[in-house]
User: Fold this.
Amino acid sequence: MKKFILLFAVVILTQFLCGQTLEEVESQISILKSKIELLNTQIQELNQQLDSLNKLRAELLEKRTIGEDYICLAGTAIYKEPTGYASVGTIQTNSIAKVTNVLEEKYEILFNGVKGYVHKNALTPYKEYIAKKEAATKEKAREEEEARILEQEQAKKRYAAAIERDNQKKSQLIKKYGEKNGLMIFEGKVWIGMTAEMARDSWGYPKDINRTITANLTHEQWVYDNDKYLYFENGILTTIQE
Assistant:
């Protein structure tokens, strides 16, 4: 529907323009050119006003710096004259100077009783410096808090996963050995008469096994850390040494 209305409007406009004489069309072109020139003139005037306001704004901002404290973040020389290079002193890093006047490229400053001139890029408004520092501190605190919360969430997930693994292991041991023996093995207990497989499920694999085989007997010594030993005869636990 919209395409039809647009097409209809184009057809009507074309018929209207085609019905005009050359003189009428040239007259309309001339009028449009005059309007464009007028608009360009107005735009130029507005841009000039904007430039003037921006300059005034910059001047007002600079005037606000007079009497304000500025910090020197990298150390700089204090010059005797605004256009000279003779030094009358130095502003140390992280020292505070007071701006007493604003020139085109330099600040007139007072530092520890010494009056002189420094390049504008050598000083930073102290209030601005403090604001940025506080913002950076808050951002760091926010990031640390987010990291702490993330670590807590991950720790909870790890804990939940560990509980789930323990529950699965407990269920498997109970299913394999019955409730009484399964719970004791899950708790890491060993006792005389348990099988080698039960001991392995309780204490884990030993770091070493010393085996002696005779005609009717297989004797094994299982060696664990912390001077712990289990002794088996034909696969049955006979001695516990802790």
In short: The first strand starts at residue 69 and ends at 72. The CA atoms of residues 55 and 61 lie 10 Å apart.
